[in-house]
């Protein structure tokens, strides 16, 4: 078994900084030192970690796998040194992913305050509506909504969000007010990332598959369509609340609102014992739901 595993720090720096020269600058060493260290690590592993061209470097499939493990090794080392040295403050990198609007409006301010309280923590946030593979891409934490599929992950409920159906007064004037859920079949429904809408009628839960001539996986784009008077949609309350207040939108079927949908903190099993991840999840749980409920309406404008 080979034990010459030097080069881990340099390899992670190149992958993080997208090049050998910026990695050397970040580590305060020469570019040739970084290049030799990465080459030694590749020789120890027996496979190339980067595709190299004159313009850029990019990770190979092996490199992506090795990167996640190397980041974990560095984090574990730093936490070990901190524990032995008596420093109990969380430190090291936390890599987080979240949907764009939820992240921009709510999660990012919470995480920013967390970093102010714990300056030894370095956070990288990826705000995207794509479903990120936490393990393959080396993420420590994701904030996700609805049903969770990946059994390799640990989840912890941190908040809930309420969905409702709404449209514009202009649309209702042109097409009439639907009186029953079945009436939605005769209306143009703007469909988001979910192909079904949920309702609660008394104690019964109902699901409806809306029909329409427009679909988009961006809730912000669905909202734009609602405001433009092109149809009816179902969105989380925090998207539409200011427009309901101003009269730009009106709620339909208020008595049939579904049960609130859970919002989850999700993380790989290898991360669940890290104090910094637990602390951040606890912070999000304590502040996210009150943020939904206490945000002044004028601050909810898109």
From TrEMBL:
InterPro entries: LysR-type_TF_proteobact-type (IPR058163), LysR_HTH_N (IPR000847), LysR_subst-bd (IPR005119), WH-like_DNA-bd_sf (IPR036388), WH_DNA-bd_sf (IPR036390). It comes from the Bacteria. SUPFAM superfamilies: Periplasmic binding protein-like II, Winged helix' DNA-binding domain. It holds the Pfam family LysR_substrate. GO terms for biological process: DNA-templated transcription. PROSITE patterns: HTH_LYSR. Keywords: DNA-binding, Transcription, Transcription regulation. One of its GO terms (molecular function) is DNA-binding transcription factor activity. PANTHER family: HTH-TYPE TRANSCRIPTIONAL REGULATOR, TRANSCRIPTIONAL REGULATOR-RELATED. Belongs to the LysR transcriptional regulatory family. This is Uncharacterized protein. It comes from Hyphomonas pacifica.
């Amino acid at each position: 078994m080979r034990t010459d595993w030097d080069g881990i720090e340099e390899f992670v720096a190149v992958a993080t900084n997208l090049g050998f020269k910026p990695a050397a600058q970040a580590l305060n060493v020469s570019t040739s030192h970084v290049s030799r260290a990465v080459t030694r690590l590749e020789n120890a592993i027996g496979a190339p970690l980067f595709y190299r061209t004159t313009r850029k470097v990019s990770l190979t499939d092996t490199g992506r796998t090795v990167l996640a493990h190397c980041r974990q090794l560095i984090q574990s080392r730093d936490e070990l040194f901190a524990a032995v040295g008596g420093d109990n403050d969380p430190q090291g990198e936390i890599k987080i992913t979240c949907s764009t609007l939820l992240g921009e409006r709510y999660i990012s301010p919470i995480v920013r305050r967390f970093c102010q309280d714990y300056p030894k923590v370095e956070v990288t946030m990826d705000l995207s509506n794509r479903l990120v593979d936490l393990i393959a891409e080396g993420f420590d934490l994701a904030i996700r909504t609805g049903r969770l599929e990946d059994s390799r992950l640990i989840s912890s409920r941190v908040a809930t969000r309420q969905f409702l159906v709404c449209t514009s007064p202009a649309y209702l004037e042109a097409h009439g007010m639907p009186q029953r859920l079945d009436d939605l079949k005769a209306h143009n429904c703007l469909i988001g990332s979910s192909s079904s809408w949920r309702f609660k009628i008394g104690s019964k839960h109902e699901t409806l598959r809306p029909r329409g001539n427009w679909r988009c996986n961006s809730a912000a784009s669905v909202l734009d369509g609602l405001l433009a008077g092109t149809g009816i949609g179902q969105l989380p309350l925090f998207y539409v609340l200011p427009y309901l207040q101003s009269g730009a939108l009106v709620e339909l079927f208020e008595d049939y609102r579904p049960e609130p949908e859970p919002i989850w903190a999700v993380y790989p099993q290898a991360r669940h014992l890290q104090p910094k991840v637990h602390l951040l999840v606890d912070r999000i749980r304590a502040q996210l739901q009150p943020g939904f409920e206490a945000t002044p309406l004028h601050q909810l404008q898109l």
